[in-house]
Amino acid sequence: MIYLDNAATSYPKPETVYKEVERCMRDYCANPGRGGHKMSIISGRAVMSAREVVSSFFNIKNPLQLCFMKNATEALNTAIKGYVSEKMHVVTTSMEHNAVARPLNVLKRDGVIELTIVEANPYGEIDPEIIRKSIRKNTGLIVCTFSSNVNGTILPVKEIGRIASEHGIAFLVDAAQGAGDAEIDVEKMHIDMMAFPGHKGLLGPQGTGGLYVSERIKLRPLMEGGTGSNSEYIYQPEFMPDKLESGTLNTPGIIGLKNGVEFINNAGKTNLRLYKEYLYKRLYDGTRGIRGIKIYSLGDEKKNSGILALNIEGLDSTQVSEILDKDYDIATRAGLHCAPLAHRTLGTLKTGVVRLSPGPFNTAFQIDRTIEALERIAWMHGT
Ligand code: ALA
User: Fold this and answer.
1) Across the 383 residues of the chain, what is the mean pLDDT of every consecutive 10-residue run?
2) For the residues of 106-120, what is the DSSP string, one character each?
3) CA–CA distance from 152 to each of 91, 357, 378 (Å)?
């Protein structure tokens, strides 16, 4: 099988991820932070060590400001709903996934916030100056994706972060696509809050993710419950990460996530990024000239997090994906990718797109087989 659906979840995982998840479950999977016995202390330390490794990956200075969550969606909901206040104006973009767009639209519909959606161009590029011009007196939050989950376009996060910081506005980044694929430095990019999944570019298991919250941001938790700390206190603790981490953590998953990040560190962040850029460029260049294929992603691999979006004239995107799967054993994702606004921006709301997203374990040979398959499908089934 040729797996090109790494934007949905990365596969395979590094060997160390499989091995350490199993070792954790067998040898030291007590409840971290609950109970003073030896195994609970070991699992608590392992979670802390994962917090440190993941924090350092994003240049988060204080690992206690990083909370583990079950996915980026939980993290985004926690950040958005925990931060906004009555009549706050929020700025976002037309390239957002439903994990951002839906909570914001519900808050707008319920009269809690005012919302401005800044339109991207047909390749998903955002002009940060339009964001600056959208700022009002009551703007309290800017939310944007690091890169589009539909066509991979990387947004000018650093520039948007600078604008937010100049105006004293909180800046939340959805790093669902990009974390592990591109360099993200929360300090240099003026990021106040960042949601990320563990199971995509960071190569960890599903059911993992996290939220970084800078020390100057105070969030109301989405949930209250057991934290293993201050048990006598009837309210939620005010300190991080306990404030946002109620209930038993996904210890084996978090250990897997740590090993995914360590794999990237050991391979070299830059090496891996260059390799993925090379695969993307090869795929882009190989498909660009094929008759009947329309591409919606930018050709510049530096401006793309590793996603090629395309359609074949005369075929529905889901048909192409199905043929790739059944006849060629190539896994891709078609349709709307839970991001209708982004599809409207790219002009693909009716058709969807076929999304091909290589990962660090794909080879040039697999990319070439995929290009041949697309060429054959366009020739045999397209118009
Ligand atoms: N959000 C994931 C995707 O884009 C699942 O496929």
Assistant:
1) 98 98 97 91 97 98 98 98 98 98 98 98 98 98 98 98 98 97 96 98 98 97 93 94 97 98 97 97 97 97 97 96 98 95 95 97 98 96 74
2) HHHHTTSEEEEEEPP
3) 21, 9, 23
Integer Cα distance of 124 and 274 in angstroms: 22
Closest residue by Cα to atom 1, ligand 1, is: 8
Query: Which one of 337, 341, 355 would you pick to mutate in the ligand 1 pocket, going by the greatest count of ligand atoms within 8 A of its CB?
Result: 337
Residue 190 near residue 171 (C-beta atoms within 8 A)? yes
Contact assessment for residue 196 and residue 70, using Cβ atoms and an 8 Å cutoff: no
> Is the minimum distance from the CB of 206 to ligand 1 under 6 angstroms?
no
Decide if 260 contacts 202 (C-beta within 8 A).
Answer: yes
Question: How crowded is the C-beta side of 162, counted as CA atoms within 13 Å?
Answer: 6
Query: Which residue shows structure tokens 């030896």?
Result: 38
149 lines ligand 1 (CB under 6 A): yes
Q: Is 337 near ligand 1, meaning CB less than 6 Å away? A: yes
Q: Write the CB contacts of 274 (distance below 8 Å, at least 6 apart in sequence).
A: none
Atom of ligand 1 nearest to the CA of 5: 6
Q: Flag whether the pTM goes above 0.90.
A: yes
Q: Which residue has the CA at smallest separation from atom 5 of ligand 1?
A: 8
Nearest to 279 by CA among 370, 183, 173: 370
Q: Phi and psi (nearest 5°) for 338?
A: 55, 30
